[in-house]
Design brief:
Elements lengths: L5 H4 L12 H10 L11 E5 L7 H7 L4 E6 L2 H14 L4 E5 L2 H4 L6 E6 L8 H14 E12 L3 H16 L5 H18 L6 H14 L3 H9 L8 H9 L3 E6 L12 H10 L4 H12 L3 E8 L12 H4 L3 E4 L1 E4 L17 E5 L4 E4 L2 H13 L4 E2 H14 L6 H14 L3 E4 L15 H7 L4 E3 L5 E3 L2 H9 L5 H9 L5
Parallel strand pairs: 1-2, 1-4, 2-3, 4-5
Antiparallel strand pairs: 5-7, 6-7, 8-12, 8-13, 9-10, 10-11, 14-15
Helix pairs in contact: 7-8, 7-9, 8-9, 8-10, 12-13, 15-16, 16-17, 18-19
Bound molecules: S-adenosylmethionine.
S-adenosylmethionine binds next to β2 and α5.
């Protein structure tokens, strides 16, 4: 009989985390010159899987891979197994177990995922988790761990500790949550017009948390354990278990340039080419609070090639999160004319991305035509090479595409995959089976790219029924990544 946990009493909502998808982990490994296992045969383990919201869509999408989800909470594992049988998937196993005990096993996995767990467990379980990664990651394996970091969490701890002090003597979960919300509300109101640094911090954090779900407030802030650490401490702890830092799960999260050239140049200069030091300086100077780190076995560290070249991208697949946009021409002075954008695109936040040369437009249009699905890097190169030839342009297409792609990746509007996430042919496309199951339970569903999408009532009806109402609706669902 398993022990009862707080997750039995207040179950965690379980979602897909696109950044933890093995095809994205393999994309980062290949980008840095390392081989990685294809999902056709991969073994994937998730620790602290809750009721499978992250792992189940992957299992449906990749029938050849074997998935194992482990969680301490029997209630959550029972629910995961219920969903598993509703979906009829056979390539996934859910187990109630403690990470402490699993570390003694000898299984091998190509991908190990732990999202939202490491910071919330006692030090001996953290150590057992890293031990498991060190021993059970296959030779070409890639591990993902997300965790809270300082200095960003220093400020959040002030709010957490206020809530903990206020509810510490309470036993009942519902009263605890109600009182945590009550003190947040009071702090938010008290500091609503306080312009001093502490007042602004308190009001901002309190108002942000007030909008979060009960399960988030409970497990993020009211659990006995929430142990942020500095990035360099995390890397130091992983090294003791035979692990090495590969990078972050999204390239854009590890490019100092995203904070401007000044910080990027300074961080690179003062860290003397040491990537751990560089990342740590950036965290310290930008108040970072969260990381999603990829780990490899330490014996592969010497093979990591961090200098990116066209060869780094050769075997990769790429998608963009962009759509064409129109902007009104702006009046300019005659003295300082700005470059004319050949095409303008917008990202999911409405941010404008320009293609300033015709061959940039060809590259982005080729990617946008497949979006949100991926195309091979080589297809983008071929499109640009064909344009260059027709326009009589002297251009090394592979060099050009890789450097432009690095810019789009840095801007966070492109994603790399180690294997194809292809757009299906319109006449053979069907609604993604996991999305169909999901739509029967709500209007926010998991798409084929492992992201969450909000559906209109009409779209939800079509996804649930398994048949788009028209060709136009099928095209709409394709754009949302809901067709496979
Ligand atoms: C904050 S939740 C995160 C759930 C999920 N990974 C997510 O991010 O949505 C932490 C999960 O870790 C599980 N957990 C905590 N301690 C554990 C342990 N020692 N062994 C296995 N699972 C554990 C909890 O039951 C819970 O489901």
């Amino acid at each position: 009989m398993s022990e009862t946990t707080t997750y039995d009493a207040v179950p965690y909502e379980s979602f897909p985390f696109a950044q933890s998808h093995p095809a994205r982990m393999s994309g980062m490994a290949k980008l840095f010159g390392l081989p990685a296992t294809n999902l056709a045969t991969a073994r994937v383990l998730e620790l602290g899987c809750s009721f499978g919201g992250n792992l189940l869509p992957m299992a449906v999408q990749c029938p050849g891979a074997q998935f194992t989800g482990v969680d301490l909470s029997q209630v959550q594992i029972d629910y995961a197994n219920k969903i598993k049988s509703e979906l009829g998937v056979t390539n996934i196993t859910f187990r109630q177990a403690n990470i402490l005990d699993l570390a003694k096993e000898t299984a091998q996995y190509d991908y190990i995922i732990t999202h939202g767990v490491y910071s919330w467990i006692p030090p001996e379980v953290q150590s057992a988790m890293l031990d498991l990664y060190g021993k059970q990651l296959a030779p070409n394996g890639v591990g993902y761990i997300s965790y809270n970091v300082y200095p960003g969490w220093k400020m959040r701890e002030v709010v957490r500790e206020m809530m903990l002090f206020h509810v510490g003597h309470l036993k009942d979960h519902t009263t605890k949550l109600a009182q945590a919300r009550a003190i947040l509300q009071y702090a938010g109101k008290l500091h609503a017009n306080n312009q001093a640094a502490f007042g602004r911090l308190m009001a901002e954090e309190a108002n942000l948390l007030m909008r979060c779900s009960d399960s988030y407030i409970y497990h993020e802030h009211l659990e006995a354990n929430n142990r942020p650490c500095y990035f360099h401490e995390f890397v130091g702890a992983t090294a003791k278990h035979g692990l090495s830092y590969l990078g972050e799960s999204s390239l854009s999260d590890m490019l100092p340039d995203r904070h401007g050239a000044d910080l990027a140049n300074t961080a690179r200069q003062i860290s003397d080419g040491n990537i751990i030091a560089c990342e740590q300086y950036v965290d310290l100077l930008t108040n970072r609070a969260f990381r999603q780190t990829l780990l490899i076995r330490a014996d592969r560290a010497a093979s990591v090639q961090r200098a990116l070249s066209p060869a780094s991208f050769r075997d990769l697949h790429v998608s963009v999160q962009l759509k064409p946009a129109t902007v009104e021409p702006q009046l300019q002075t005659t003295k300082t004319p700005q470059p004319v954008a050949h095409a303008v695109y917008s990202d999911v936040h409405g941010r404008q991305i320009n293609a300033n040369q015709p061959h940039a437009k060809v590259m982005i249009d080729t990617l946008v035509a497949a979006s949100p699905y991926s195309i091979p890097f080589t297809q983008a190169v071929q499109a640009v090479a064909a344009y260059a030839q027709s326009a009589g342009l002297q251009l090394d297409a592979a060099t050009y595409v890789s450097s432009e792609l690095a810019v789009l990746l840095g801007q966070g509007v492109a994603t790399l995959f180690g294997e194809a996430q292809s757009r299906p042919a319109a006449d053979a496309a069907r609604i993604a089976p996991y999305a169909r199951w999901h739509a029967a339970r709500g209007n926010v569903v998991t798409n084929a790219l492992h992201g969450l999408v909000q559906l209109t009532p009409e779209q939800a009806q079509a996804v649930k029924s398994g048949t788009p109402a028209s060709a136009a609706q099928q095209a709409e669902l394709m754009t949302l990544g809901l067709m496979v």
